[in-house]
Design brief:
The complex is a heterodimer. By secondary structure, chain A is mainly α. Chain A contains eight helices and no strands. Chain B contains 15 helices and no strands. In chain B, helix 9 runs parallel beside helix 11 and helix 13 runs antiparallel to helix 14. Chain B starts with a helix and ends in an 11-residue tail after the last helix. About 14% of the residues of chain B have low confidence. Classes of the chains: A mainly alpha, B mainly alpha. At the A-B interface, helix 1, helix 2, helix 3, helix 4 and helix 5 of A face helix 1, helix 2, helix 3, helix 4 and helix 8 of B.
């Protein structure tokens, strides 16, 4: 059965917070920093809730978390003026278009993956397995798990980008152009 | 120089928590400057969000029986930092929801949490001089070697923290932060715990760690009125009285602890009582109990 669309009260929901904390831990590698990152993510989510238009609250919050994480690592080191960087506006909360496709389009993209890639993705994202667990379950080397996951996710993103209407693709490309400076 | 797919793979491994600490740290230094890696990180995280929400994501063919449910008990909301909870509480209140928190007494201890307590007690020395009642912290370990060791904050393993939260184990999370010496984080959790004698004891420890001795004393006195044989509370009240210079009363509580003959704790209590007795004024033995 389809889960109800998350609403504003779900921002502080326990399981979602745990998931965010787990992801923040992987990014920051430090419990206190992870707590801070989750706090900042949720605070921004609450503040910018009026801009949340798409049905996946989890995806939207992970997007905010990713932006805040990159902001934080940039603040840790001096900016090298010779390096071209993507500008991530501090208040950016808009999801890229490819992440806003319908569930049907996402399911269709998954169906286009080869069976092993689908299996690796399902074990990782549905069952939360580690690389070692996936390696054991599928009888493949641990190093191969990372390669297969990377390829599967990259292919999924490409499929979702091509699933966008041409106008949305052009819009996304032009937004990306503007953000590089 | 990495080939691009290797470069991309490093991002995915990082986002999945599969890089070594050194490689993850190097990646953190790198990602702020690398648009390709930032885009790749976006791919992993946004796909993760979408796939987790997708009702039709097919199960793995090599599925095994489901893991224990990660969902907390009905009505439970796991605690976060103070402002997060304050915000969430406001939002929940606005939505007409009631936040109900409960102590973690009946919740099985996660192996990750149990391991974290051992990892934060190197050499089988407890990091606190006080006694906690949360199970992995409750068994006897020798006292900290130095006061500095007792006071310095350590990093709480993130796996343990998330494992405690996944189970709704508020007591475990509180004890983890206390064990690590982080009273601020412990206070955040403490504000959202329920009522339970063991939890009250650990909340008294938190008050002691924050030098709120009157609050700690009140909490321990109330607990011991209803649970006279709560040896951890007796122990902690003895420590508190010792800190306040009330040596005779502290000796009484230590000696009460010793009578219960708990391994390790009884010997240390006797030793502490004997040390205090040496510091009593001449002719001033502790009054009888």
């Amino acid at each position: 059965m389809r889960k109800p669309t998350p609403g504003i009260h779900d921002i502080g929901e326990g399981v979602l917070q745990s998931e965010l904390l787990r992801q923040a831990g992987r990014l920051t590698r430090n419990a206190a920093d992870a707590q801070d990152l989750v706090q900042d993510t949720l605070e921004r989510g609450l503040r910018k809730y009026d801009r949340y238009k798409y049905g996946s609250l989890r995806t939207w919050l992970l997007h905010i978390m990713r932006n805040l994480f990159i902001d934080s690592v940039r603040r840790r080191r001096p900016i090298d003026p010779g390096v071209e960087v993507l500008s991530i506006p501090a208040e950016s909360t808009s999801l890229p278009k490819w992440a806003q496709v319908s569930d049907a389009a996402l399911s269709a993209a998954i169906a286009e993956l080869d069976p092993i890639a689908r299996e690796v993705v399902a074990l990782k994202e549905r069952e939360g397995c580690s690389y070692v667990e996936i390696s054991t379950r599928l009888g493949i080397p641990v190093a191969t798990v990372g390669t297969r996951l990377t390829r599967a996710r990259r292919k999924l993103r490409k499929l979702l980008e091509t699933a966008l209407p041409a106008s949305a693709r052009e819009e996304e490309e032009s937004e990306a152009d503007v953000q590089v400076h | 120089m990495f080939r691009f797919i290797e470069h991309a793979e490093r991002v995915h491994r990082f986002a999945d928590g599969e890089l070594s600490a050194a490689d993850a740290s190097a990646f953190q230094d790198h990602v702020g400057e690398c648009p390709d890696c930032q885009k790749e990180l976006e791919t992993v995280l946004l796909l993760r969000g979408r796939l987790r929400d997708l009702p039709g994501l097919p199960p793995a063919r090599s599925s095994r029986p489901a893991r224990p449910a990660a969902d907390p008990p009905p009505g439970f909301r796991s605690p976060g930092r103070r402002t997060v909870l304050a915000s969430a509480t406001l939002v929940a209140a606005a939505a007409g929801l009631l936040l109900v928190l409960r102590p973690g007494r009946d919740i099985p201890v996660s192996p990750a949490v149990a391991q974290a307590f051992d990892a934060l007690a190197p050499g089988q020395r407890r990091p606190l001089v006080e006694r906690l009642t949360y199970r992995p912290a409750a068994r006897y370990r020798r006292p900290p070697a130095t006061m500095r060791a007792a006071r310095s904050a350590a990093a709480v393993p993130i796996d343990a923290l998330t494992a405690a939260r996944d189970r709704g184990d508020v007591h475990g999370e509180l004890a983890l932060w206390l064990w690590a010496g982080d009273s601020d984080e412990a206070s955040t959790v403490a504000a959202h715990t329920g009522r339970d004698p063991d939890l009250d004891n650990d909340l008294a420890v938190l008050a002691m760690r924050r030098s709120h001795l009157d609050e700690a004393k009140d909490r321990l006195d109330r607990l011991l009125q209803g649970h006279t044989e709560h040896t951890a509370a007796l122990w902690n009240r003895a420590l508190l009285l010792e800190r306040r210079g009330e040596r005779a009363a502290a000796i009484r509580d230590y000696e009460a602890v010793a009578t219960y003959q708990e391994a390790g704790w009884a010997d240390e209590a006797r030793e502490r009582a004997a040390q205090l007795r040496l510091r009593l004024p001449p002719g001033g033995p502790p009054p009888p109990r």
